[in-house]
Design a protein that fits this description.
Layout lengths: L6 H6 L6 E5 L3 H9 L4 E4 L3 H4 L11 H14 L4 E5 L12 H10 L5 E3 L6 H10 L4 E6 L18 H17 L3 E5 L3 H10 L4 E4 L7 E4 L1 H4 L17 H17 L14 H6 L1
The structure holds 3-methyl-2-oxobutanoic acid (KIV).
Length: 275
């Protein structure tokens, strides 16, 4: 096993090789990612949509996020784990942000936290960074405040909007973020931001020029059927494989071909006769 990845390792990867990141919400998936030597796992608040069946990421709270983050960190030896701060933990009262961020580290054993851009983002980020907690920014499409930025749409498509994204990225870097997620941003704007920053950019729907890439795992494994964004590549269709396995199980149980002798336990005839 190679050593646990640190924040400095992630920063040092900029310009050397692409950084890999995926979301995870449970022990077995996180263990596979650790084994595959993925650099970072995000315990994303996408938990709300892809695991808990909710219609908005704003509907998960600290208790759900910590519960899933604990399962992930139990599985991980090497990969750096980032806990995604849920809406209620910093947007309602930015003064609460450092206290809640610390809970991800102390209670769930995460290595860092991520928070999305919103109107008081700099205030919240500053508080977390000043408390010595490694923090990742997230700009562009920010699902927690999607209705305020015109919906689930590509961001930074005109010069003014793109300039704002560049400013946000520079401010977050100045406050001490160790990396920034760029979600749904034109590839050339992601390139500009990546070139301007000393810290790595991690893209999702932001093209090839970012320093790293993140995807929602349930999307790339074909495990979330409600909606698939354009930027997702499905590497396997697990929904179909799992559905077929469940159907086969149902057929074999009803047709009495499972369980077979190889799945059953026996007792000696003499013992059976004594009953
Ligand atoms: O919650 C999440 O999965 C995320 C990714 C989309 C970056 O924030």
């Amino acid at each position: 096993m190679t050593a646990k990845i640190t924040i400095n390792d992630i920063k040092a990867l900029k310009g050397r090789r692409k950084i890999t990141m995926l979301t995870a919400y449970d022990y077995p998936t996180a263990a596979l990612m650790d084994r595959a030597e993925i650099d970072m796992i995000l315990v994303g608040d996408s938990l709300a949509n892809v695991v808990l069946g909710l219609d908005s990421t704003t509907k998960v709270g600290m208790s759900e996020m910590l519960h899933h983050a604990k399962a992930v960190t139990r599985a991980v030896k090497r990969t750096l784990v980032v806990g995604d701060m849920p809406f209620e933990s910093y947007q309602i009262n930015p003064d609460e942000s450092a206290k809640n961020a610390r809970r991800f580290l102390v209670e769930a054993n995460c290595d860092a936290v991520k928070l999305e851009w919103f109107d008081k983002c700099l205030e919240a980020t500053k508080k977390i960074a000043q408390a010595g907690i490694p923090v990742m920014g997230h700009i562009g499409l920010t699902p927690q405040t999607a209705e305020k930025i015109g919906g689930f749409k590509v961001q930074g498509k005109d010069a003014d909007a793109a300039r704002k994204l560049i400013e946000q990225a520079l401010e977050l870097e100045k406050l001490g973020c160790f990396a920034i997620v760029l979600e749904c941003v034109p590839d050339k704007i992601a390139k500009l931001i990546t070139e301007k920053l000393k810290i790595p950019t991690i893209g999702i729907g932001a093209g090839i020029y970012c320093d790293g890439q993140v995807l929602v795992t349930n999307d790339m494994l074909g495990l979330f059927e409600r909606f698939t964004p354009k930027f997702v590549k499905k590497y396997v269709n697990l929904s179909e494989l799992i559905f077929k396995a469940i159907q086969s199980y149902k057929d074999e149980v009803t047709q009495k071909t499972f369980p077979g002798p190889e799945h059953s336990f026996s007792i000696k005839v003499e013992e059976l006769n004594k009953i």
